[in-house]
Amino acid sequence: MRIRGLARAAVFLSVLLIALTGASGGASAAPARQAVLLGVPGLQWSDVNERDTPNLWRLSGAGAVGSLSVRTTRTQACPVDGWLTVSAGQRALPGGPVCVLPAPATADGAGAVVRGWAAFRRLNRQGKYGADVGLLGSSVRASGGCTAGVGPGGALAVADRAGRVDRYVPSVDRLTPEMLRACTLTAVDVDDVARAYVAAGVDTEGESGAAVSAGTRRAAVRSADRKVGTVLDRLPAGATVLVAGLADTGSRAHLHTAIATGPAPDGDGPYPATYLTSSATRRPALVTITDISPTLALAAGAETTGMVGAAWTDGGGRPDGTAAAVTELADEDVAAQAVSKLLPPYYIVLVGAQLLLYALATLALWRNWGGLAARRRRVLGLTRTIALFGAAAPVSTFLANLIPWWRTTHPLAAVIACVAGFAVLVVAVARLGPWRRRFFGPETVIVTVTAMVLGADIVTGGVLQMNSLTGYTPLVGGRYYGFGNQAHEVFAASSLLAVAGLAQLLPGRRSRGLLIAAAGLVVVAVNGWPGWGADFGGVIALVMAYAVLWLLATGRRVSIPRLAIFALIGAVVIGVISYLDYLRPAAERTHLGTFFGQVLSGEAWAIVLRKAGAMLNSLGNPLYTILVPVGIAFFVLVLLRPLHERTAALRLAIERTPMLRAGLIAVAVAAGVGFVMNDSGIVIPAMALVVAAPPAIAASVHALAPPSAPAER
After folding, report:
1. Which range marks the domain in which residue 214 is found?
2. Is the pLDDT score of 295 beyond 60?
3. Any bridge partners for residue 38, and if so which?
4. Predicted TM-score (pTM) of this structure
5. How far is CA 553 from CA 439, 513, 556, 664, in A?
6. Fewer CB under 10 Å: which end of the chain, C or N?
7. Same domain as 284, residue 356
8. Which residues have a Cβ under 8 Å from the Cβ of 281 and sit 6 or more positions away?
9. Which CATH number goes with the domain that contains 297?
10. Residues 226 and 135 placed together within one structural domain of the fold
11. What value does the mean pLDDT take over residues 482-501?
12. Domain tally, the chain
């Protein structure tokens, strides 16, 4: 009996042990939080449709969707760039000039080790971004999770700092449901689209003349969709799933596909059927490749320290129906492509038009035109009209985006027509209103319209900034919200001249000083506040420029000590703004608050050096580097040079509108400080000339024009 009882006890304990072991094993095989990345390098929204990509179509209808900017360290991102950027949570270097697919990882038991990992780490730690390759995988492992890679790219994304992946299979067909349940973070490489281009000899450097036909691309997309479907069928319930077109294919950058389903990292339930956004872009339907890492880390329950992006979140409503949303997202890439193609010729035209305007003004001012007053009046009048159109051009490049010109058959002709049409409208307002009778009246109206349009746009979301000729594009990825450096200088210079022109209407120094102080506060707030312009260096430049304008308007002397004091005030102002931004939750900060945190942690110096290097490198821009000295010489040798027996044309204009002098000096201060404080460097004074020179020319030729009627006030 005793032996039988012991046997029963042994059987009971064995069964209990097996049950406990099974329960424990089941818990480790199915973590409470799981994140899966399906990386499909090259996938664009124009590829997605119900017939060719049924799995992606269903996923798009059920989850949140957006356009993905994949800009890394070069103009077009390769698959290796994309996967390493996910690994580092920062733009990463690929380690070679030619675009190739990632090499297979070396199997090591159930896991693998990435080949050449030490070289990837060394290259990126020494690079200008200091990318910490392996950060994502190490963060997940530090939180107690494990990593799984499917395919070479998947291994690159989730390997830890030692290059180790906990579980690995070389392809999707080897993937099992058990492997997907085993780890908290899984990355799957679906490389069919990119492989089609590499097989054809086409890389993102445009080295080959070979082409991938529409049929070949379509077949590759279909194959990729089938693999996506295979993974989705084997996924455990409750996993966060991201689909990302991680890289470009061919010789042009594109916006790519971004889809998110399952539990959102913010804990507010699953991703709804809306557009995606992140605090890195602050725009509905737009996210970046560096946002993928923190999204995966948070979904897997890991830390995001050291990652520069922000989690994908609900970006607001989208059109009803999957087709309408996909069409809108594809249209965003069309717009980005259109403006990207036009930017090189636009810059040539912009600088060329400025130089031609200087030449025309020189000819009009220096020639005697036979001594005939009527002829001289016609020439100077024509020159003034052309200059007014030049003054209206910058704001017209933004207003043109009110019309979807990129959807037309001939985008170049369409955008020219839109810019010209808005320029005509702005000049008509300036020339036909009652202010036309006042000297410098039309010029003041144009710069006021410019400042008001840009200011109103930026406080209402900056719709006119994105994909505009003088704004920015997500393909470049330098900025996604607020003022870009070119737009900042257009806003700064136009606001200074507008305030100077309006101050001229006031009777005394006190009232002028009050106007300038009030306007300066508004302009600095619009330019620097995190939810609006979010421009760091521009705040210091504007504080100093408005201080100079105020000193000159109130009859006070401009001195080096006073300039130093106002520079310090500007630094304090942007410091306070950045600190207030830093106090917000990390997911809600702009780059201002992030930079303040980097100052506290000692990481800011590398960023400052990178920005300084970019500023100095801007001097290699031949167009703007030519425009700036030529523009300065034009002001000194033409507008400020006495003409025959007359005084200088600009001096005559200043005699009639003394505040014009103060406004131009303030613009010069803003341009000079902006040159030093912004990584765009020479672009800042160049854009200041684009804004300030045409009104100055218009006023100068107007001052010289022989009167045909009683003199204007």
Report:
1. 32-318
2. yes
3. 188, 243
4. 0.89
5. 18, 6, 8, 12
6. N
7. no
8. 69, 287, 288, 291, 474, 480, 481
9. 3.40.720.10
10. yes
11. 96
12. 2
